[in-house]
């Protein structure tokens, strides 16, 4: 605890410091100031609990100082020590909640009693603040107890006994019973779309922000139904998947399910209109704590197998698990669409095929995975025919994200197929355009000719098969790849021989030939003379 003494009379300050046993009173530090400016600086830089100040000072009164203290919300017990028995001063001091108005001359035993009173006031205030903070913390904890309970309970296995569940309820001070029933709601949020240039667009780039927005809309829509023990939890951070737990009421079960369905539909409509985010929603049958985990697994199974699902609500009571046989799409027709570069027809066929399977209840996760494999293989085979390395072309973060999401919904699968088709046909069009690939390779060689480059490394740059690239380059330039590299290196060596005094050995290194003898033989083969003879000949002619 610290005290600040403020008086423009240095003898008063000296007397207070000499005659008061501050340490024995429990005051750790004693600060001194001779005017308001100094006092303010001390208060800004140090914790001050008690203030003893004169009223009448040249650069501002003690009343001014206490007014500033109250404006800045400093909690400081203030004692006025003054020569003036002025009623107006005393009244103002009371208004500013000063602790004491004490007239000089100083009687140190009386002043000690006043300081002890101030110390007690400081301690009482600190206790009150601590109690208030504890109360606020407890209110926050109580509000979050259901989240903590359900969050840990969901992640446990199904082997908890009734006594173990009761023990956990007791631990969290929750007055739930084993006969209470709950609905489980699952929500999957689809937050990405594919742009025209084949890149991912995130409807909400901040996962934490998305979670808070979704929770706010959820609470506004379901607010009338929610009890103290009802929660909304994100399954894993950043997963865009949420679980809602809602207590059953005494209403008819079918009526409650229909109410939940209407609320889910309203939630979907609001989220889509505000944030352009699609949602799949799943509603369980009522379940108890003892059967909670098995009910949760059933809802998850429903979620995994219902593929045509975005912006729709599915009820467990209506769900029937199917195990259909996979029937091949018309791969020959799809291949024709690729050959003719009819990307819209390709994607449209895939969409109609999957939709038809869904309408006839023949679409589940197993079927859609098989379909994905066939379509991917078809596109990769098409690229291979064109001499394009599909595994080099179709790679990266965009592909990985879309691939991971592709089996979660029909719409996600169509987005993934669109990405594959666009990437494939865009590159086929590019690689077959006049001088496009050859220009890229020539530009690359012109910059990197002194490095260790070969046919394979050049092929990787343009995602082409090395043999196909070699044929294409020769057709467009008239040179083989290696001859073009040699030509560029020899031309550069000629320039260095004529316009610099560098040794032939150094020039050999600069143009990419570490072996001096090999460079000399190659140079003579291309020009008819050795590098040294070429330099002499050019100097003589100049």
Structural class: alpha/beta
Number of DSSP helical runs: 22
In total, the number of domains comes to 4
Q: Could you give the distance between the termini?
A: 93 Å
Segments where pLDDT lies below 50 for 5+ residues?
none
Rg over C-alpha atoms, rounded to the nearest angstrom? 41 Å
What is the fold-level CATH name, i.e. the topology of the largest domain? Alpha-Beta Plaits
Tell me the number of strands.
Answer: 13
This entry's quaternary arrangement is: single chain
Structure overview:
It is flat, with a radius of gyration of 41 Å. The relative contact order is 0.05. It has helices at 10-19, 36-45, 62-71, 87-95, 108-154, 162-171, 207-222, 253-275, 292-305, 331-339, 343-359, 365-385, 390-393, 397-405, 410-432, 436-448, 455-461, 466-477, 481-499, 504-510, 516-527, 531-541, and strands at 2-6, 29-33, 50-53, 77-82, 100-103, 181-190, 192-194, 200-202, 231-234, 241-247, 278-283, 287-288, 312-315. The protein has 542 residues and is of the alpha/beta class. Helices cover 58% and strands 12% of the residues. Helix 3 (62-71) links the parallel strand 3 and strand 4. The chain has 4 domains: 2-127, 3-Layer(aba) Sandwich (Rossmann fold), CATH 3.40.50.2300; 177-318, Alpha-Beta Plaits (2-Layer Sandwich), CATH 3.30.70; 331-424; 436-541, Homeodomain-like (Arc Repressor Mutant, subunit A). The strands form 3 sheets. Strands 6, 9, 10, 11, 12 and 13 form a 6-stranded mixed β-sheet that branches. A 5-stranded parallel β-sheet has the order 2-1-3-4-5, sandwiched between helices. It is built from 22 helices and 13 strands. The longest helix is centred in the N-terminal third of the chain and has 47 residues, at 108-154.
